[in-house]
Amino acid sequence: MATPLPRRPEPGGASPQAVPAASGTADYAVPASLRGIGAQAAGVLGLLTGVWVALSPWFITLQHQGGNATAVDLICGLAVAAAGAFALASPRGFSGLQLGSLLLGIWLIISPPILDHKHPIAHAMYWSNSFSGGALIALAAAGLGFAALRRTAR
After folding, report:
1. What number is the average pLDDT over the span 81-108?
2. What is the pLDDT of residues 21-41, one digit of tens each?
3. With contact defined as beta carbons under 8 Å apart, do 93 and 143 qualify?
4. How many Å apart are CA 65 and CA 46, to the nearest integer?
5. 67 vs 30, more confident
């Protein structure tokens, strides 16, 4: 990837010199390998899935009575979004956070039948949580796989 080099005119009509457009080093390095880009993509998709789970109680009906399903989705979604954000903040990623996302994905799949014993759960919650939980499990598995590939590549 080429860095754009603006031309600065020299005093006295001399030939212009090329100077870098941005000086200094960046605090966060862009991943250079396909494995790094894959880990970043898994982190972004996990973050977006967590945001959906946290906001879904305001878009779909989760429960016909009570509010425990709303609380479960809000807490679980915020935890998944935080795990995705922390995974993005580190150039190496965190295997522990991916494992946490995997466990939260499993919880999203099994929570509707558990919550259904106290108050009836809407079908939309079953589908939304099952799809989101499956996506989180797949993304966490991909993130763990990319982390394992990075460790073996060193």
Report:
1. 79
2. 555 555 555 555 666 677 677
3. yes
4. 29
5. 67
Q: Which of 35, 31, 32, 49 is nearest to 139 (CA)?
A: 49
* Alpha helices in the chain, H assignment, sequence order: 34-55, 68-89, 95-115, 123-153
Q: How far is CA 151 from CA 10, 78, 93, 147, in A?
A: 49, 29, 11, 6
Q: Residue with structure tokens 């466990």?
A: 103
- Overall residue count recorded for the chain in this entry: 154
Find the distance separating the first CA and the last CA of the chain, reported in whole Å. 24
Q: What does the block give as tokens for 3? A: 């860095």
Beta bridge partners, 17, equal 8
- CA dist 21 to 24, 25, 78, 96, 100, Å? 10, 12, 38, 38, 41
